[in-house]
Amino acid sequence: MAAFIQRLFKSRKATPTTSPKTAAKSDLPQPKEQDTRQLLREQQEQQLKNTLSQSQLATLAIDGATAAIRLQAATGIHDETLLQQVQKRAKGRDKSVYQTVKQALQTLKEQQAEEANTREKIKTLVRQIQDQAGSEDTKLYEARLEALQENWRPLENQATPEQAQHFLEAAHQCRERLKQMAQAKSEAARHQEQTHQRSETLDLLRETLADLKSKEAADLPSLSALDAFQKTQENRWLEATRDTQVGKQEQKDYEQLMLSFRNYLSAVSRLSQAKEAMSELVEWANSDQATDAHRDAASALLTTIEWPGDFPQPPDLAMVRKLAGKPKAPKPATANQEKQKALSDALQAALPELEAALDARLYKESKQLFKLAQSQFQQLDPRQRKQLQARMQLLAGQFRELSDWQGFATEPKQIALCEQMEHLAEQPIEPEAKAERIKELQSEWRDLGGSSDRTLWSRFKTASDAAYEPCKIYFEAKSDLKQANLQTRTAICEQLDAFLANADWSVMNWKGAERIHQTAREEWKNAWPVDFRDNRQVQKRFDELLKQLERPLDQERQQNEALKQAIVEKAETLITHEPLQEAMEQAKALQSDWKAVGITRHREDRKLWQAFRKACDQVFARRDAQRTAQQQATEQADQSAQATLDKYVKLTAESDPALLDEAQEALNQLSGNQLSPRLREQLQQLRQRLKNIAQAKAMRDKVTTWQTLVNDKAQSQLSQESIPAQWTSQYGGMKEWDGRDLTIRAEILAGVSTPEQDQNRRMEIQVQRLTDGLGNGDSQDPIKEFEKLVALWCLKPDNGDLTTEHAQRLNRALETLHSGT
User: Is the peptide bond before 529 cis (omega within 30 degrees of 0)?
Assistant: First the structure.
């Protein structure tokens, strides 16, 4: 009403108006705009056939001319930031693009999660193999290394160069560790073999000396055999004492036994040199004509020969001793005959194998077989030994020749090892690496079989000690670290013990207890290295405490797993539950219940979670299927509606009325419920336009009819039948106004100007209208007011004041009403 009052008192100048025809045309899309949209769509389709950047695809996914273009562009986007932007802008505007981008983001997140999982596996493997490289636990060491390498192979190509380098370095350290372990084992075997060889050497010396003391003096061994035996046992003892610890008593026993053997060998050598002089004295001893000179010569010869008193004297030497007046040595007892025969048979069976090994120049096998043969030979009595003595001497010579050849081949290499060790002693290398290199050189020395040259061995040993001196200091410091770690592990045990002693499992914070369990294991692992022997009891205590903590934790985990199993079973029943909305709400409630459940075992939890996730996915997949079906129905409805809209979108007020009616009927048959918001809005707009066109046409026809009635009345040509019947009943009893007042009222109502001569009357009428209450907000519809004025015009019985001028002014006011409508 306020707007109507403003229009009532506005300037009397006529306001330019727009014709109904022009207004109707302005409401409709022009054919040029349709052509532009078609051209834009073709351009965008052509762009999609080319290679576009991610930002260009994102723009098309939002601003594409058709749903198909937007969907195709959205499918090609892979950048996460652009996907998020498109998802945000497409929400509520384009459901297909929104769902496509949402799925792409989900796929991208899964790929990122998988890549993160792979990176974590790589980090774990690198950490594990580094731990393995530094671990002192050698149990199943090689098997654990092979397992780590097997797990690394499928992930190697996805690791960074730095991670690959760290893994390969740790793997190399592990292989070196395996090599060291093998070397240590070989070293232990070598020390054991050296101990065995020293024991056999001592036993053989004892047996040989005992045999020499027990055999008949008439069968003295050959000087060459005794010399060969001495050199063999000396070399054997030298090899058995090289680079190893020898007990003082053991060395003393060897020196005493070897001294006794050397004395015997020297005595035999002197006896052999004095053979002629002894023969002469023996002849004089058998005759009764021996003089004091002969006796003195016999005494001098005995002094020169200096025969050891604990060995039986040869017969000739006994005769010389008798000549000199000295008593004869006692005769030793004989050995067991059956044992001697068995030893002889065993030796004769072993000698062919020794001969074959010597012929094949197999030093190691020959050495073992020769030691065995020597041991058996020394246990024989003189009679049995005499039969095999020549053969044994021949084999001993062959073995010495093979030993000399072996030493000649290895000596240059041993000199090179000495030089390398001396050079290593002067190098400022990291202690652990230096210690590893020292072990490698020592291992190479042992592989060469040692050296009989004491000077060369002393040179190598001195260089090794000098090189190891800085390593010794380092490993002593490392020993302090081991002790500190042992104390840390002891403190962990004390803390666990105190926690278990005070734990009230009925009100336990299970997640906190589980964290204590995990933290204890991690801190225990970090407290490394430790001394294996010292750690044994602490480790046993820690394992027992962990078992005490794990028992209630496992019970709680099993109870929680049962709860989650029940949730899984409930979720599986929702797969076919109806209605679907209720099933989804219950599934969401079960997800909340799942989160509320406490601790579980990781592996079992993963299994249960996969089953629960699968059931929930199937529930929500039903919703997605419904949405997909609804989306397909919407797309089909959009295609049908778009065709209808394209057919009638160009209709105007000047179009064929029949076509307008047809369009209205076709639009009424379209269901807006299945349409997309965009098509629904276009449909509503077209319906409103057609409605406006129909209303404008009806108003135009009505105004034209009114104008005809006004003209006919002014010309006295209006029949009573032409007047609408409702006018008579509705306005027949109202107060009559003359033609001038009716015209002025129409001009006031239409807001058009009034001629100068009627301006005063117009002012009076306006004041009267205000007085009558028309300005208080209760104004009637202007069209009704115009209808009332036309009706009063036509019902006026007297045409005296209904002039043609008044008719023209009234029709002009009606024309303005028509234009405004």
Answer: yes
